[in-house]
Specification:
flat; nucleus; mainly alpha; STAG; cell cycle; Cohesin subunit SA; chromosome; 1104 residues; single chain
């Protein structure tokens, strides 16, 4: 422990009394005016100008002799020699490290001459650094044990005087700090925003470090300076005032870090002297110097190091143990950061379980920055192999917590934790769990996991055989690549929960890009052109092709993936050049090799799907693209594959590849367009031949299958290419009806032609809505919705100078058919989980298409009432779509949207009343009174801005009052309105009324009730009481809904089981053919609407 300098303090006190003119010379004052305060220093320029300072930093004493002991006089004696301006210690922070060392040296000289005055200057420095604009007074204390002295240690407010006081013991001083109350909320230097705050933090820490470094060989061991300084920082770090606590905690922690450096220097000196002593001892008597040996033996003492360690222990127990769980996150972060530094530098003392436990505990802190500081500190410790044995117990205790931190909500914490666990700190089973993070949605975390995967599974692999020798380095490289790819295939196949090759390749791209871009080795393995590669299994070949295609995509497009965040948005010039070079290399290689791969794997549709995507990433500026023979060979193989496969995935990949090859400006454009047109012409000719028979739908099964296959191909290419020259609408429109359309050629006017096609399509689709096959009904519904939505958008962008607009309004019969169809989407007939999810996705698409018609004005907004009434009942399945529709309609016309909500509630209430009166069985469209009331409450919550939707809410109330009292004639047999209980539902909107509107609605209600005799004491009128109370904002003790209605008891539906016959053979294929005809006809209509830039699927609300 640091010795107590009470005796020395008493002697110094007596000397000061002799030199003082008054009786109170034991008290000094440090005054901080507005010009010299820490707050004023914030406004100084960062250019660190030196300011002249007249006189001492302390207020001049009344006695001339006493003032001669001040720091200014001590520095003044050297002013002419060193040419250093007189500055305060606080101003030193603004002058840089070089000036800091000179001024601190002067302060040490002044401290040797007069310790008390110099210590007051140092105390003033820390008070000013805390941003305090006040006065510090100091008085000498004889002993710490005096109970009267300890009772004076207070921290209080004087609200009358507007001052704050803090009196604390920094032995041998009793310090009192006084400052105005209104400055407590002002930012102190450490937390100021901008560069000044960061710069002051750095300079302040440097000051503490330089102070200890300059004092380590002299006054630091005088048992006075450090005792006072530690007492000061300990007391201020315990203050409830944030500025004192934060600033002095930082100073105390940096002081301990500086003492660690001193202890390390002493340890090195002790070790060197011990070695020198051993050398002297080994010499013979003649060579040995006895005085030198005795001098060395005296220097080998550990008293100074023990004293330094005692200081560190006092700071740790007095500051760290009280502040590492401080309410301020910045203080907790400082504690963890400095603790990690102590463990790293002075592991002999700090790297043990007694200190490591604090690091483990604070990994559970709720602030991400604190957790991050713990992880970064542990990274430095685990990075030193010599320290690993001391961390075994810590890892066994906190291993689970570290693994769970890879799932931290803060991305940086998760990434740094993954880097920490990459240092061989866990078992193989734990690493198997961590490697799955290559599929993470956060790219930095996935890349870190990819580095872990590469270092543990891919990089250590070497060729199994060394018989090839160094002469055949290429074969050795290929064998190494094959071994790594084999390990990668094994890892992917063992990850049964993930089937995302593109994300795996993206995670490995930064560390294993050379391996993944070795396309010649990939294709050589797939073609089995080398003897060193044994045959791959069928599943391994498929995965290897997927990895190869994913690497091609990554090289061409970069790391941008759907669902993965944290990607750098702007590429550097070097990255762009690398991307261009990679595209040229893959184009040159795959133009030659891809036909061979397609020929080999032509009978494997899944491999063909992946291979078909490669031409989409070709670089048309590649020199190899001039070779038309190679391009023709590739297109011939693609055409041969399309003759074998007609699956949707293969056709979509081929259509997109042809779209890329046929792009304008490409050198192979003409060759690709010729091949595409020839292939489509063959399909159209074949379809014409198959459709020559007027009774095509009754043809044999083989012919129907050919029609279906050809329609699939035309549908896939029609989505990407312009096939208008083949007049597919005229060719396929007869298939939509049993009767064939007779008549001459259509009129030449553009609008008339389009209107006829649109009307014909809607009529045929309307007829298909009653088809026996559910898939045909769904496709017909989607076709009508998409085409009508596109037609609505076309009206907005129509150029009136070209020709008349394409006017078409769906008939009421068609609107009712659409509404009837959408009502069936609320229910699912599948019970299996997978089928139920797939069916839900389809039903969401159908509902979104119908809502799009309402949003785009194709259907009246009132048609949305039938949709809104299911908002609560099917919230989990369709709530997001209905809510978005409600929001869009409110943007179009908020008053009409409010009337739609009213219509929805009134229809539900009317159905409920009608069912209660009839006493019939339960109907799916009828909801309970409680459900309707809850639906009204959820509707009311959508009106967030009361001022913006003021008219809407008033409209809802007025419409509700009119609904209740309209046509009511009070008679003895009907004393109350039939729908009076609707007011209870309407009261859910009362909280959204402004005060003036509540009075208006109340007057409107009284106007309707004034003509009738209302007895509020009767139970039948309680809904009116409840509603009036909601308008008057009076809390009622009992819910009026309990007087009016109760929930219906659910009755099981009395339905006979419906047996559905399976469509087999020709009938099923005919239904599929009809579905494809609907799709192609819809696409043709989109092409004819030349002004429309709205794809079919984008015209639909996107379900989540």
């Amino acid at each position: 422990m640091i010795p107590d300098p009470s005796a020395a303090a008493a002697s110094r006190l007596s000397e000061q009394k002799k030199n003082s003119c008054d009786g109170e010379n034991s008290t000094g004052a440090i005054s901080h005016s507005g010009d010299e305060s820490g707050n004023e220093n914030r406004r100084k320029s960062v250019r660190r100008r030196k300011r002249p300072h007249d006189g001492s930093e302390n207020v001049k004493r009344t006695n001339t002799k006493a003032s001669c002991s001040s720091v200014s006089r001590a520095r003044g004696s050297h002013r002419k020699q060193r040419h250093v301006e007189a500055v305060t210690l606080f101003e030193v922070v603004t002058m840089g490290r070089s000036a800091m060392q000179e001024v601190i040296d002067d302060w040490i000289e002044a401290y040797v001459m007069d310790r008390d005055s110099s210590l007051l200057d140092l105390i003033s420095f820390f008070i000013q650094c805390s941003g305090c604009k006040g006065v510090v007074t100091a008085e000498m204390c004889q002993t710490k044990e005096n109970s009267d002295v300890m009772s004076k240690m207070v921290e209080k407010l004087d609200e009358i005087a507007g001052l704050q006081y803090k009196k604390f013991l920094a032995f041998p001083w009793i310090l009192t700090v006084t400052w105005p109350m209104d400055t407590d909320s002002v930012e102190y230097p450490l937390i100021q925003s901008g560069p000044y705050g960061r710069w002051f933090h750095s300079e302040f820490c440097d000051f503490v470090s330089v102070l200890v470094a300059q004092c380590q060989h002299s006054v630091i061991f005088d048992s006075y300076l450090m005792n006072t300084l530690i007492s000061l920082l300990t007391e201020l770090s315990n203050s409830y005032i944030r500025a004192f606590r934060h600033t002095c905690t930082l100073a105390a922690l940096k002081l301990l870090s500086s003492l660690v450096g001193v202890a390390l220097s002493l340890s090195v000196g002790i070790e060197n002297n011990q070695k020198l002593y051993k050398v002297q001892k080994t010499k013979n008597m003649r060579q040995r110097s006895t005085p030198q040996l005795e001098r060395i033996q005296k220097t080998i003492t550990e008293e100074k190091r023990a004293e330094i360690e005692s200081m560190m222990d006092i700071i740790f127990k007095g500051v760290f143990l009280k502040r590492y769980r401080d309410v301020l996150p910045e203080i907790r972060s400082l504690c963890m950061e400095e603790l990690g530094l102590w463990m790293k530098l002075y592991n002999l003392v700090f790297l043990n379980d007694s200190y490591l436990k604090y690091m483990g505990w604070m990994m559970n802190d709720k602030i991400p920055d604190v957790r991050l500081k713990c992880v970064l500190a542990l990274q430095d410790l685990y990075g030193d192999a010599q320290l690993l044995p001391k961390l075994d117990l810590f890892m066994s205790r906190f291993k689970d917590r570290l693994i769970s931190m890879t799932l931290d909500k803060d991305n940086e914490v998760a990434v740094q934790t993954m880097k920490l666990l990459s240092d061989d700190a866990l078992s193989s089973d734990d690493y198997r769990q961590l490697l799955q993070f290559v599929y993470s949605s956060q790219r930095p975390l996935a890349v870190t996991a990819g580095e872990l995967l590469y270092s543990r599974l891919l990089n250590p692999l070497s060729p199994e055989s060394e018989a090839l020798g160094e002469s055949n380095a290429e074969e050795v490289h290929k064998q190494q690549t094959y071994a790594r790819l084999k390990a990668l295939l094994k890892f992917y196949q063992e990850s049964e929960l993930h089937q995302h090759v593109v994300y795996l390749v993206d995670s490995l791209w930064d560390c294993a890009g050379v391996l993944l871009k070795d396309w010649p080795t990939f294709t050589s393995i797939l073609l089995q052109n080398s003897s060193y590669t044994p045959g791959l299994a069928r599943s391994e070949e498929a995965v290897l092709v997927e990895i190869m295609v994913a690497s091609v995509r990554q090289a061409s497009e970069g790391p941008a993936l759907v669902g993965r965040t944290g990607v750098k948005k702007v590429m550097s010039a070097r990255e762009k050049k690398q991307q261009t070079d990679d595209c040229a290399k893959l184009t040159e290689h795959f133009l030659v090799v891809l036909p061979k791969l397609l020929s080999k794997f032509s009978h494997s549709w899944d491999i063909v799907v992946s291979l078909m995507k490669i031409p989409q990433y070709f670089n048309p500026e590649c020199p190899e693209a001039e070779n038309t023979q190679v391009v023709s060979s590739l297109l011939a193989e693609v055409g041969a594959v399309l003759e074998l496969h007609s699956g949707p995935d293969v056709l979509e990949a081929a259509a997109r590849s042809y779209l890329s090859l046929c792009a304008d400006g490409a050198s192979w454009c003409s060759v690709a367009q010729t091949a595409r047109d020839s292939m489509i012409q063959q399909w159209v000719d074949k379809l014409k031949v198959l459709l020559e028979d007027s009774d095509s739908f009754s043809a044999d099964e083989e012919k129907t299958g050919e029609i279906l296959t050809t329609l699939r191909k035309l549908r896939a290419f029609h989505n990407c290419h312009d096939l208008s020259q083949w007049s597919l609408f005229e060719l396929l429109s007869p298939l939509l009806s049993i009767e064939s359309v007779q008549g001459g050629p259509p009129p030449q006017e553009k609008a008339v032609v389009q209107r006829l096609q649109l009307r014909l399509f809607c009529e045929r689709c309307h007829h298909c809505l009653t088809h026996s096959d559910h898939s045909v009904r769904q496709q017909a519904f989607l076709g009508i919705c998409d085409v009508l939505t596109a037609h609505s958008y076309q009206l907005q962008v129509w150029d009136p100078t070209s020709c008349g607009p394409l006017l078409y309004t769906p008939s009421p019969k068609l609107q009712r058919a659409l509404l009837t169809f959408i009502e069936a989407t609320w229910y699912s007939e599948n019970s299996e989980v997978e089928m139920k999810l797939e069916d839900l996705h389809k039903r969401r698409n159908l509902l979104a298409a119908y809502c799009k018609l309402i949003v785009h004005g194709v259907l009246e907004m009132s048609m949305a009432a039938e949709v809104f009434m299911y908002y609560m009942k099917y919230y989990n399945d369709f709530g997001d779509i209905i809510k978005e529709t409600m929001y869009r309609t409110r943007q179009i016309d908020k008053i009409e949207s409010a009337r739609t909500l009213v219509l929805c509630l009134q229809q539900l209430f009317t159905r409920l009343r009608r069912e209660q009166e009839s006493g019939g069985g339960a109907h799916p469209g009828v909801q309970t009174f409680t459900s309707i009331k809850e639906l009204a409450r959820r509707f009311a919550l959508t009106f967030g801005d009361l001022v913006k939707f003021r008219e809407c809410v008033v409209t809802i109330h007025r419409s509700g009052i009119e609904f209740v009292f309209q046509g009511f004639n009070q008679m003895p047999e009907t004393p109350t309105p039939l729908y009076l209980s609707y007011l209870t539902i309407l009261s859910e909107f009362s909280s959204k009324l402004l005060k003036p509107d509540k009075k208006t609605v109340l007057c409107y209600l009284q106007k309707h009730t004034a003509e009738h005799i209302v007895n509020l004491r009767e139970e039948s009128w309680q809904p009116l009481v409840y509603y009036r109370a909601s308008l008057l904002a009076v809390a009622e003790g009992e819910d009026a809904a309990s007087y009016v209605s109760s929930d219906r008891k659910p009755h099981p539906p009395n339905r006979s089981p419906f047996s559905r016959q399976k469509l087999e053979g020709t009938a099923r294929k005919l239904s599929q053919a009809l579905s494809y005809v609907l799709i192609i006809a819809k696409s043709v209509l989109f092409v004819t609407l030349q002004e429309i830039n709205l794809p079919a699927r984008s015209a639909r609300l996107s379900p989540k």
